[in-house]
Amino acid sequence: MLGHSVGELAAAHVAGALCLPDAAMLVAARGRLMQALPAGGAMFAVQAREDEVAPMLGHDVSIAAVNGPASVVISGAHDAVSAIADRLRGQGRRVHRLAVSHAFHSALMEPMIAEFTAVAAELSVGLPTIPVISNVTGQLVADDFASADYWARHIRAVVRFGDSVRSAHCAGASRFIEVGPGGGLTSLIEASLADAQIVSVPTLRKDRPEPVSVMTAAAQGFVSGMGLDWASVFSGYRPKRVELPTYAFQHQKFWLAPAPSVSDPTAAGQIGASDGGAELLASSGFAARLAGRSADEQLAAAIEVVCEHAAAVLGRDGAAGLDAGQAFADSGFNSLSAVELRNRLTAVTAVTLPATAIFDHPTPTELAQYLITQIDGHGSSAAAAANPAERIDALTDLFLQACDAGRDADGWKMVALASNTRERMSSPVRNNVSKNVALLADGISDVVVICIPTLTVLSDQREYRDIANAMTGRHSVYSLTLPGFDSSDALPQNADMIVETVSNAIIDVVGGSCRFVLSGYSSGGVLAYALCSHLSVKHQRNPLGVALIDTYLPSQIANPSMNEGFSPNDTGKGLSREVIRVARMLNRLTATRLTAAATYAAIFQAWEPGRSMAPVLNIVAKDRIATVENLREERINRWRTAAAEAAYSVAEVPGDHFGMMSTSSEAIATEIHDWISGLVRGPHP
Known about the structure:
- 41% of the residues lie in helices and 10% in strands.
- It has 26 helices and 13 strands.
- The strands form three sheets. A seven-stranded mixed sheet has the order 7-9-8-10-11-12-13, sandwiched between helices. A four-stranded antiparallel sheet has the order 2-3-1-4.
- Helix 18 (408-419) crosses helix 23.
- The relative contact order is 0.07.
- Residues 257-284, 377-392 and 559-573 have low confidence and may be disordered.
């Protein structure tokens, strides 16, 4: 459980830490003492990060709350707070003055803290029987939760709601139910976990009757997997099934829209041989609806989709009454309904929209235009969906010609030279790195699995899709994208930049206390191993261990893109050609991906593993590939030597290097799960 500000007192009562009379007395004392303070303060909600606001503060102004990645509340003396708000407004940030009587969570509260502490000291406060996450720390409550000093500090401290939400998610929470008079926290939760697969539901909404809101919340929770006692839900009623439609001549949809798949369409049987195995992630839905149409027709179709879902969010029977040129705010949208519309459109279009999309593109027409550009920008435009081959660029075409002619080395030389023309990172990415992280599976274990993509043209979060599916219910599984593999990214200059950037993304996921293991398939294991040491030494975040999935050392594989002279041996050429064959089939060969793969290969070509202080699990494929068969035992022993000071274990699963991630996903998931269970239990006496 978690609450926001004074809501944490309600959470403490429900969780068993406070009896109802004591909770009521604390709330009443808090309100009475605050109201007795002199008026004159102000509070503003601003669109900014905490590190952007902090340098502007003085003694008269405090950060009252950090509600999300770009949602901060400032509080303090009226003139000083207003000056900062005006400054941020001048930068184009959204700024909203809160309707409050006093400047809560600021220095102006300090005169009442001593008296409140005395009241709290007279009450019986215990530890919760249901886990509670503290607003003060953003982590699970500690023993001081039962002290008067904690509740006194709670008055003045920053409300770290965003951190609290992320901690809850890291601990396994995937469904959030807001119990209160509105849905303000629901939109904050959505913003804090924008890239995660969660359900966030308010029980009451200001724009809907209470019975409708509560039943809608129950339904949303139920379809997301939450158990409900339906006998209690319908107590006093006699529910029965009804036939739909109720009136055949009234055009109204009742069927459920299919959820978009984030999996490979080939695996789902949605792509036939004529599709050539290309990934048509969005083209089977929204993009396909636009295929073959003129620009005007595409816009009209996109507007229809936006208006249809906007009407559903507003509770209207159809989109006929919505003006595509009218602002969403003028149609009745608030922050909560805006998030609900964002979620619907993300589901139906397979385009991940930011939480602010409806505010950034304030009319249905503008939002529809943005959706079309996002489809285009992700390589899934209507034209591309109609003919995936048209997406091949000149560099890729020349590279494929070289490979087809048996001149792999020349092709990689050309790609390496081309990579020098791309922009380079000047420093590791530290902000907004979590946008590159995806939650692939939810589980009940408090140990999270972080998967590192390969360093090849196949590098993608979805490489771990099948393993994540097999992990569902056991462990939460995250994967991420590496810097440089997206056309909007700059390329890293060295291994330190890669490792630090990815470490920042991992820390964004696991926070300060969540336990986790790292895992990497093939060349991804090299980076996972490097990250394990880096996280421990530089960030004092110690992974429980690292699981390598059929990982060869760079020096073993003289891959064309890993060799300075580009004169590969048969081993490297065989593996490289198989990677290119698969990437070609999946339509993942682009100039961006090729140049990124060449850059990573050059950076890691001389990499050797250092000593590991964390346990290592080495999962190897049972079926051997002819070109690398002679390297199998050498590889196992070299990893064993590197892990000499830590626990090292080897597990064998069916399949070969290229097929094991799909055909043996259950076996791999089980090996990792059993290994983690052993790490958590510790050695037997």
